[in-house]
């Protein structure tokens, strides 16, 4: 049986990388990530800084024995603001705030993009964000 061109993915698109690689790359950007299991074996990276809205990055496959070895792929990597405030209340954000990483993007470039958007997001105000604080 042959794979149809629509189903076949480029090797860069399906390559998996351990969470540790992105954690280290984000440290180089001056930001800290941590990985948690967010249900059903799904791994999610959290980018947090006091006084800022949290970004989530994922999804990935959680490694119970070594969370930093949880695996992610650029074929399905999204990031954006967590949709809950510090009190656990939902916060609405414009639809364009969630971003998708282009498959095959190098880890250092992913870290730069996420860091830039995290900083940009946390320095502008919107009516929704003002009312949530």
Low-confidence stretches: 1-8, 127-133
* Average pLDDT score: 83
What overall geometry do the principal axes of the alpha carbons give? globular
Number of helices, where a helix is a run of at least 4 consecutive DSSP H or I residues: 4
**Strand proportion:** 15-25%
> Largest sheet, described in full?
7 strands, antiparallel
Number of strands: 7
Rg from Cα: 16 Å
| Helical content (DSSP H or I, runs of 4+) | 25-40%
Structural class: alpha+beta
Distance between the termini: 56 Å
Instruction: Give the SSE order as H and E letters.
Output: HEHEEEEEEHH
Characterization of this structure:
Residues 1-8 and 127-133 have low confidence and may be disordered. Strands 1, 2, 3, 4, 5, 6 and 7 form a seven-stranded antiparallel sheet that branches. The protein has four helices and seven strands. With 133 residues, it is α+β, with helices and mostly antiparallel strands. It is 26% helix and 23% strand. The protein has helices spanning 11-14, 19-28, 107-121, 127-132; strands at 16-18, 33-37, 42-47, 55-61, 71-73, 78-81, 99-100. The termini are far apart.
């Amino acid at each position: 049986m042959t794979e149809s061109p629509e189903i076949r993915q480029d090797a860069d698109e399906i390559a998996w990388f351990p969470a540790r690689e992105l954690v280290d790359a984000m440290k180089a950007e001056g930001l800290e990530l941590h990985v948690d299991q967010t249900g059903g074996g799904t791994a999610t990276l959290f980018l947090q800084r006091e006084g800022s809205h949290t970004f989530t990055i994922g999804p990935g496959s959680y490694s119970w024995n070594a969370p930093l070895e949880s695996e992610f792929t650029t074929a399905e990597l999204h990031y954006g603001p967590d949709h809950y405030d510090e009190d656990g209340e939902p916060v609405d954000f414009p639809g364009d705030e969630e971003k998708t990483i282009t498959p095959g993007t190098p880890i250092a470039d992913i870290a730069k993009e996420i860091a830039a958007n995290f900083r940009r997001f946390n320095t502008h105000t919107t009516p929704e964000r003002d009312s949530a604080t």
